[in-house]
């Protein structure tokens, strides 16, 4: 798959505020690793710091201290986080660590004992306290003006919208609940207030994220709040309906296939609602025995029947998912069931990972771990199957007209865009290579698709 340009990658993003600082202004740098949920945390931290009078530096050398927001989901991510902390220490020397890996303070300080402080995920106040201690603030109310949207690490035309923290599931390969706690949903009116402000300030696409988006509001017992004289449950269906009225694209990520998800599909089929016909569902596997060993919440769900029902209601729906191959105990028969399921499901966008032990995960203790060479072989076979499906899906779009959002225009005038079927960074792109002089980043335009690749499309501008 052709990746989005590096300047659009969340883990390489830089703060989108003016770099100029006044002479005596304390300056903080930020390195943000991991998933979009961590990116939202970084934005909140920087927004609070900017409001207190701190400057934000895009590099190490201009900062009085550096915050490293870490990822700790996989052992490889932990190693990357430790490397980032080490680099920040070498380049700057004054480092505050936060994020998921921050839940393992001894692990961090054992490798880097000179860090100034370590805080866990979404511990905003503790991060601010650590910054205040390391670099006291010097606010000036006459010059420290904060943009209404806060500090953004994503391009101005799209933004992640976090609706909850934590997760109630106990999947054996995952340690997210240990790091981020149980499900804690934001009030619906607070989410809509933030979303409204983002759209009013130019955001054209909102990417709704949480660890379990379809469980939103369960911890609040779906309490009712008032929003614009509308009685609003803290429920993903009510929230999606209201978000879809804001005039922006609304894209749902990390949705478990609970029965009430079917209530979302008519909203996606409604041309007057901004909820995109797009579901990002982490199926992870298809064989019931594998799902049982994973302790997946959807192990008993007839997912193929649900997919058929969704497509009956909304034929244009895009379904993306991620899968794990080589999970402990996975037999060839179980893997073949996954391939057969994938062929029948005909998912539009698919990612696949080889199983990896994660320190603290219960899956580590399962018997019959799959040899690396077998995992590699299964991954290659899985991706060949997924690629063939992708080619057929995209080829069928040649000759159709698609609405796209413009993410980037390079110096040669080639526009990198995304259709409604493509989330930033994780899905494909649509490229326009001529007559792009009138386009600007963030525009939503119509193109006719004239060429398809394995994962990407090319088209010509219609309007």
Automatic annotation (TrEMBL):
Gene3D superfamilies hit by this protein: Methylthiotransferase, N-terminal domain, Nucleic acid-binding proteins, tm_1862 like domain
A molecular function (GO) term: protein methylthiotransferase activity
PROSITE patterns, per the entry: MTTASE_N (PS51449), RADICAL_SAM (PS51918), TRAM (PS50926)
Enzyme class: transferase
Binding site for [4Fe-4S] cluster 1: 35, 71, 100
Superkingdom of origin: Bacteria
Region named Disordered: 1-23
Cofactor binding: number and manner: Binds 2 [4Fe-4S] clusters. One cluster is coordinated with 3 cysteines and an exchangeable S-adenosyl-L-methionine.
InterPro entries on file: Elp3/MiaA/NifB-like_rSAM, Methylthiotransferase, Methylthiotransferase_N, Methylthiotransferase_N_sf, NA-bd_OB-fold, Ribosomal_uS12_MeSTrfase_RimO, rSAM, rSAM_horseshoe
Domain TRAM: 395-463
Pfam families: Radical_SAM, TRAM_2, UPF0004
Subcellular location: Cytoplasm
Domain MTTase N-terminal: 26-136
The protein, known as: Ribosomal protein uS12 methylthiotransferase RimO
């Amino acid at each position: 798959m052709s990746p989005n340009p590096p300047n659009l990658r969340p883990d390489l993003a830089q703060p989108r505020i003016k770099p100029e600082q006044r002479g005596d202004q304390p300056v903080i740098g930020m390195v943000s690793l991991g998933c979009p949920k961590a990116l939202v945390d970084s934005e909140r931290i920087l927004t609070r710091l900017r409001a207190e009078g701190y400057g934000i530096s895009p590099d190490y050398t201009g900062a009085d201290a550096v915050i490293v927001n870490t990822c700790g989901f996989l052992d490889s991510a932990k190693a990357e986080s430790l490397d980032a902390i080490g680099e920040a220490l070498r380049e700057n020397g004054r480092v505050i660590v936060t994020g998921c890996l921050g839940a393992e303070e001894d692990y961090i300080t054992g490798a880097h004992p000179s860090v100034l402080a370590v805080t866990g995920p979404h511990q905003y106040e503790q991060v601010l306290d650590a910054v205040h201690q390391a670099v006291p603030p010097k606010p000036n109310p006459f010059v420290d003006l904060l943009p209404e949207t806060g500090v953004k690490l994503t391009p101005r035309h799209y933004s992640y919208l976090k609706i909850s923290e934590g997760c109630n599931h106990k999947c054996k390969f995952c340690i997210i609940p240990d790091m981020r706690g149980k499900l804690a949903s934001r009030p619906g009116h607070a989410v809509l207030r933030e979303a409204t402000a983002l759209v009013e300030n130019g955001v054209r696409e909102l990417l709704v994220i949480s660890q379990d988006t379809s469980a939103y509001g369960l911890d609040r017992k779906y309490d009712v709040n008032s929003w614009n004289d509308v009685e609003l449950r803290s429920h993903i269906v009510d929230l999606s309906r209201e978000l879809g009225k804001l005039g922006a694209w609304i894209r749902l990520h990390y949705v478990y296939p609970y029965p009430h998800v079917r209530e979302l599909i008519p909203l996606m089929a409604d041309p007057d609602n901004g909820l995109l016909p797009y579901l990002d569902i982490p199926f992870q596997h298809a064989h019931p025995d594998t799902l049982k060993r994973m302790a997946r919440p959807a192990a008993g769900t007839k997912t193929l029947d649900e997919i058929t029902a969704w497509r009956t209601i909304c034929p244009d729906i895009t379904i993306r998912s991620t899968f794990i191959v080589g999970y402990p105990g996975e037999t060839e028969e179980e893997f073949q069931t996954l391939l057969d399921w994938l062929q029948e499901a005909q998912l539009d966008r698919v990612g696949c990972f080889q199983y990896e032990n994660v320190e603290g995960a219960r899956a580590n203790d399962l018997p019959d771990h799959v040899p690396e060479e077998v995992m590699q072989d299964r991954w290659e076979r899985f991706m060949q199957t997924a690629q063939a499906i992708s080619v057929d899906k995209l080829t069928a779009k040649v000759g159709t007209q698609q609405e796209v959002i413009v993410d980037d225009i390079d110096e040669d005038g080639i526009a990198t865009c995304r259709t409604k079927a493509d989330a930033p960074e994780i899905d494909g792109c649509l490229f326009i290579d001529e007559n792009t002089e009138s386009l600007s980043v963030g525009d939503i335009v119509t193109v006719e698709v004239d060429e398809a690749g394995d994962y990407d499309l090319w088209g010509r501008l219609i309007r």
